[in-house]
Amino acid sequence: MTETSDRSLTHLSQAAGRLGAALARPKWLAGICIVAITGLGWLWLALLISGMGGPGAALGPGMGALDLLPRLFAAACQPTFGLSILAMPGESWGLMSFVVVGLMWAAMVLAMMLPSAGPMIFTYAEIADTAAAKGEPIVTPFVLAAGYTVVWLGFAALATFVQYGFTKATLIDDSMASASGLFSGAIFVAAGFYQFSALKHACLRQCQSPFPFFFANWETSARGVFRLGVKQGMFCLGCCWAMMVVMFAVGVMNIIWMAALGIVMTIEKMLTGTRFSHVVGVLMIVAGAAFIGAAFAAHWPA
Question: Which pTM value belongs to this model?
Answer without folding.
Answer: 0.73
